[in-house]
Known about the structure:
By secondary structure, the chain is mostly helical.
Amino acid sequence: MRDKPLNPGSTVSESDLLRRLPSMQVSFIQAHISFILGAFSPTEKFFLATPSLSRQGLEVESMLVEPDHLAIQDQLLRKLSSLATTINQRNASRKLKYDVLCPRNVPLTTQS
């Protein structure tokens, strides 16, 4: 935080909020540490399974049993798979691909 906290009950403006956000350097360090902590778990679980993840036994094991819940999960996985396809198509024409937030690279949780 770069500015002192506001008094309770005071009116908050957008500039008040922006002055209280961490600096860009601090935000970058926090995001990088979070990424590193999430990237090196040997038991990482992912929403979208790939053949290599399946061979390693790292695909998601659903604990859902209710038909309504399974239908919602299936819909989510279809949408995530579609998003991953869109990201891969976009990256095909780029010199430097950006796939950090591609659903196939995002773990189910930070540390599953």
